[in-house]
Design brief:
GO terms for molecular function: ATP binding; protein serine/threonine kinase activity; protein serine/threonine/tyrosine kinase activity. Keywords: ATP-binding, Kinase, Nucleotide-binding, Serine/threonine-protein kinase, Transferase. The protein is α+β, with helices and mostly antiparallel strands. It is 40% helix and 15% strand. A six-stranded antiparallel beta sheet has the order 1-2-3-4-6-5, sandwiched between helices. It has a three-stranded antiparallel beta sheet with strand order 7-9-10.
């Protein structure tokens, strides 16, 4: 039998083997402790001027908005580019709301790199917190239309056609991915570097493989842009089951038709009906005719095509309503309609016009009061001549004229003191940073 040593002697031996001044090696932290340390480091970073999302530092520049459990920051990334960073506190929110946030992140991941869709830059989901980093927009279509109406500026034909095509192609991208947006409205289209991009997918849902419709548990969307089928409840097949809604691709077509109607007439089809219940009835009742006043004079040469698109999109019978391919190939965009004048205007591919707008954004031209007709004439001449699109010269001359105009105004008002002129409110421009309502209640 092996003889055991004295315990005191054993301790002395261990002590002798340990280098002088050293301490026992610390125990490895548990997984829970590691998690706590990570959360603490993020919280510490957030308390500073830097927010870490998946260990990527973003410097806070400004608070762009807040609402409910959300806050939106304008931030600068390590690449020196500015982004919109959304911080969402999910503690206390119901599971359905949290799932809508997670669903949106998942959808944006699957749509990354697709044209016309807001780009997800980074995200992180933690217990009680969600961080989302998106590309930064300048202004949404709702505010743009409001601004144009407030300044009494008619919507130019080129603006209407280009933005309509951009909206169609963005939604078409979504539909190809078997997803229905369900909440299309001007506020959900954001200008990014001069082009429109689709945002806010919180209530979007994938379409099952065997149908073009999806069952929805509750009514969603914005009433003035909601389709009749999105409003009308469908009884469940199981006794006691709550009503469900069938919403498909054609529902998004109706919403797009409402947006086009607003661009043409300055309001949605039933905006004049103020009573909520009456509005519901007007949208769903086929006996209530949608009014189509005369097309405004500056767009009168497009009357036939515009009325055709609006009536085809705002058809209550889903089977008779236009499909996406019909809208994309419609003469309104193809230039083959009765109102088309080939000598007066050349129809440009969307990709070329978007390249022009990006060039304008890069040179700061979007903040200027440019003459759109002159600009498009220049582009048309370049395309007809087989030359590459270059609007630098046009922008420079336009900016020069703009500056001369401001100098003339200042010269005519010498009585204004410098302090008064400096206190004038800044011009509202398209470069005003604006984050969408993505994940965020209205501010």
């Amino acid at each position: 039998m092996e003889e055991k040593g004295n315990p005191r002697e054993q301790r002395e031996v261990v002590k002798a083997r340990r280098p002088e001044g050293s301490r026992p090696a610390p125990l490895a932290p548990s997984s829970a402790e590691k998690k706590r340390q990570r959360t603490a480091s993020v919280a510490a970073a957030h308390n500073d001027d830097t927010i870490f999302v998946r260990r990527v530092p973003y410097t806070r520049l400004d608070v762009m908005g807040r609402g409910g459990s959300s806050k939106v920051f304008k931030v600068m990334g390590p690449d020196r580019k500015t982004y919109a960073l959304k911080k969402i506190r999910t503690k206390g929110l119901d599971r359905e709301t949290v799932e809508s946030f997670e669903n949106e992140i998942s959808l944006l991941k699957s749509l990354k790199g697709k044209d016309g869709i807001i780009r997800l830059v980074n995200y992180e989901i933690q217990p009680g917190l969600i961080y989302v980093v998106l590309e930064l927009g300048e202004i949404d279509l709702a505010r743009k239309l409001f601004k144009m109406r407030e300044e009494d500026k008619p919507i130019h034909e080129n603006f209407l056609k280009l933005r309509w095509q951009e909206m169609l192609e963005a939604v078409n991208t979504l539909h190809h991915e078997r997803v229905v947006h369900s909440d299309l409205k001007p506020a959900n289209f954001l200008f990014v570097e001069g082009s429109l991009k689709l945002i806010d997918f919180g209530i979007a849902k994938a379409i099952s493989d065997d149908t073009t419709n999806i069952a929805r548990d509750s009514q969603v969307g914005t009433l003035n842009y909601m389709s009749p089928e999105a409003i009308q409840g469908q009884g469940g097949s199981i006794p006691g089951e709550k009503p469900r809604l069938k919403v498909g691709r054609k529902s998004d077509i109706w919403s797009l038709g409402c947006i086009l109607y607003q661009m043409v007439y300055g309001r949605t089809p039933f905006a004049h009906v103020k009573n909520f219940m009456q509005k519901l009835q007007c949208i769903t009742d086929p006996r209530v005719e949608i009014e189509y006043p005369p097309i405004p004079a500056h767009l009168s040469h497009l009357s036939g095509d515009l009325l055709s698109v609006m009536k085809g999109s705002l058809e209550r019978d889903v089977k008779k309503r236009f499909a996406m391919d019909e809208l994309l190939s419609h003469p309104l965009l193809s230039g083959r309609g009765a109102g088309c004048n080939a000598e007066r205007e050349l129809s440009l591919p969307l990709s070329q016009v978007q390249a022009m707008l990006k060039q304008m954004h890069a040179t700061g031209g979007l903040t200027r009061d440019l003459n759109v007709d002159d600009l498009m004439s220049t582009i048309n001449a370049q395309v007809k001549g087989g030359r590459e699109i270059d609007i630098t010269e046009t922008l420079s001359s336009s900016i020069h004229r703009h500056n001369q105009g401001e100098e003339a105004v200042e010269a005519q008002t010498p009585h204004l003191t410098s302090s008064v002129s400096q206190s004038r409110p800044a011009r509202v421009s398209e470069e005003m940073p604006l984050f969408s309502t993505l994940f965020c209640p209205p501010f």
